[in-house]
Amino acid sequence: MERHDVTRFYEDSDGPSLSSKTEEEEKSLKFGFGWCSPNWMQWIHNAKWLLLFLGAISFIQQLAVNALFPVGLSTLERQFSLTSTHTGIISSWYDFAVLLVVFPICHFGRTAHKGRWIGLGGLVMAAGSLVCALPHFIIEPYDPSHEHVKNSTDIGQCDASLDPLRSAEASECPPVPTKFDVFANYNNKYFLLFLLGQSLHGIGSTPLFSIGTAYIDENVSQTASPLYLAIHGVISSFGPVIGLFSGGFLLRFYVDFDRVETVPLDRMDPRWIGAWWVGFVGAGITMLFASLPILGFARELPEAKAHRLKDVNQANAASHEAAKKLEQEEDNSLRATIKIVWTMLHNQTFIILMIIGIAESVIVNGFSAFMPKILETILSVSPAVGSYMASVVIFAAATGLLFGGWIIRHLKMQVSPISLFTSFLPLQVGGMFKFTIICEIASLLFLCNFLISCPPRQFAGINVGYDLEPVRSVNLSSSCNADCACTKEWNPVCDAEKGVMFFSACSAGCRKKVEENGTLSVKWEDCECLSYGQSDYDPSQTLTSEYCKTDCGYNLVFFMVLLFFAVVATFAAAIPQQQMMLRVVPFDQRTIAIGVNWTFLRLFGFIPGGILFGWIIDKSCLHWGEKCGVATNCLVYDPRKQAIIILALAIVCKLVATLACIFGYITYTPTDSDQAASLATVDSHGPLSLMVNDDRLPEEHHKETRY
C-alpha cells in the first residue's frame, strides 16, 4: 500500500529519523511570537488547541457573516431603503471577495506560514465587522414619522383638509432618476459601506477556510482528519446559533438607544427598527483578540511528521499518475501551479465533486442569507421570532456535520465502496459516494415541507379587497378613504377582531388617535373602512399599530421538523464530500485543490445563490414602499408564491447534485490503496483516538507503533 512522500515538505539531509532533529528545527516547532517562545507556553502547541483557536475564529466569523446579516436583513432594508436584491448582493459580495483572493492565498499559502496568514486574516475580518457597523454612526437618527415633522397637526389620520400640506411636502422630493440611470438604485452610500465590510470579511476569512482546512489536515492523522474537521465545523456552526439568538435579542432594543432620550415606538409597531449594529461592534472587537493566539503557532505541530509517515494516498488513479510526473519539477512557481490546476481539471472525480458542491452551495448560501426572512414571510412571524426559529436550522447543520463525521469513522469509509472480508470488520461497507447519494435523496424529500405554509396576513387593498373579497391587483383607494388625502407612508394597523391589516390608519379611514398613558402602544378609532363594504360601522372599534397574529396550528411544527431533517441530511453529506475532495488529489496538492474548489463554488454557486434568492424574494413582493416616486423596500409579500419558487429551485439543485453523485460513484477509478484491506492501528491517544489504514500484513498487526 502506497504512503505519501513527505520529503517534498520535510527535507532532512541527515536522514528520515524523527529523533535526529537539529536544535534549529526544534525551535521552529515551538509556539511563540518571534524570539518569545518560552517552554511554559508549549503545552498548548498541539492539535487540540489548534482546533480550539481555529474554531474560535471561525465561530466569530460565522456569527458575523451568517447570523448578524441574515437577522438584520429586514431591518436594514427598512432603515436604508434597500431591496432584497440589494441585500442579496451584499450577502454574495462576501463570496465575490473570497473569489478574488482564494487562488492567490492558496498558491502562496501552500508553502507559507499558514498560522500567521490565518491570524492576519482574522484582523482583517475584525476591521470588516467594524465597517459594517459604521452606517449607524453616520446616518441621522431614525424618525418613523419623518414625513410629518413640518406639520404637527398631521399625525397620519384621515383628514381631507391636510391635502394641500401633504402635496406640498411631496413636491419637495428631488427629481426622480430616469430609467436610463442603471446605477440609480446602487449608489446608496450605506449599500456601498456594507459592500466594503463584506469585502473585508471575505478577504479575511479566505485563509481560515482554505489553507486553514489544510492546516488541520496536515497536522493530524489521515483518519483523525474527518473527526477534527467535523468538530471544527460544529464549533463554527454554533456561531450562527449564538448569532441568531443574540441578534434577535438585540432587535428588541431601539436602533438609536444611544442617541435618543425616549424611544418613540412600541416594540410591536411594524415600523420598529432594532439595534442591529451592536452585534457587529461586538464581533469586531472579539475577533481582534481571538486572532492573536493563532499567530503564535508554528508552521507545523511537533507530531505532524509522525502522522505523515503513516498516511495512505487515496488519490484518483489518473490524477496520481499525473502527479508523479509533476514531482520531477520541484518548482513552486506560478507555472508549476498552473500545471497542477490543469491536471486537477482533468481529474474526473474532482470535477464531479465540484459540480455537487456548486449545486449545494446555491441552496446553502441562499438559505443562510435569507432563512430568517423566509421564515418570517412563509410562517407570518416577526423578524425577532424568525431569527429564533432559524437557529433550529443551525442546530440541524451541526447535527448533520457530526453525523457525517461519525459515519465515516464508524464505517471506515473510503472514496469508493470497499468489501472487507476480514475478521476485523466482516461486513460490506458503502463508500462516501453512496452515503452522499442517500443524503441527497433524503434532503430532497424533506424539502417538500415548503408545500406547507401558514395563512398569509390579509392586507386590505393589497391581497384582499376592502370588502374582504379576493383581488387581482393592488388598490389602496376605496370609497371609505376617498376623502382622506392619504400619503404612501407605511404605518400598518391591525383589526384584531377580523384579522385584517390596513396599509395605514389613513387608508383605514381612521380619524382619531388614542395613546395609552404609560405605554407606547397606539390605537385608532372612528375608522370608516371597518364597515368592510357594509353601510355602517362601529366608531368605537379600534385598530392597533401592530401586525395581526395568525394561527398556523400544527403546520408550523410540521414545517420546522421537516426543515430540520432536510438540513441534517444536507450537512451530513458535507464531511464526506470534503474528505473526497482531499483524498482524490495527491497529498501535496490539497491546498491548491481547496483553492480551485472554492473558486468554482464561489463563482457558480455562492455568488449566484445569494443574488438568486434575493431576486426570488423580490419577485414574490405584492406591494413596494415608495419614497419620492422611487421604490424602496418590499412591504408585503406573497408567501405561497415565494415558497413554491424556492422549492422549485431547491428541487433542481438537489437533482443535479444527486445525478452527479451517481455518475461519480459509477466512474470513480481508485488506486491500489482503495482496494487494499483496512487494518487497525492505534494512531493517537485520548478521546480523539481514531483508526487508520495500514499496509502491514495481518500477522504483523500486533506490533503497534505509538507516537
Automatic annotation (TrEMBL):
Residues 1-21 are annotated as: Disordered. Keywords: Cell membrane, Disulfide bond, Ion transport, Membrane, Transmembrane, Transmembrane helix, Transport. InterPro entries: Kazal_dom, Kazal_dom_sf, MFS_trans_sf, OATP. The chain crosses the membrane at residues 49-69, 89-106, 118-139, 190-215, 227-255, 275-298, 349-368, 388-408, 553-575, 596-617, 643-666. Its main location: membrane. One of its GO terms (cellular component) is basolateral plasma membrane. It is a multi-pass membrane protein. GO terms for molecular function: sodium-independent organic anion transmembrane transporter activity. The keyword Oxidoreductase does not apply. It is found in: Cell membrane. One of its GO terms (biological process) is sodium-independent organic anion transport. It comes from the Eukaryota. Residues 474-531 form the Kazal-like domain. Pfam families: OATP. Residues 1-11 have a biased composition (Basic and acidic residues). PANTHER family: ORGANIC ANION TRANSPORTER, SOLUTE CARRIER ORGANIC ANION TRANSPORTER FAMILY MEMBER 4A1. Belongs to the organo anion transporter (TC 2.A.60) family. NCBIfam families: oat (TIGR00805). This is Solute carrier organic anion transporter family member.
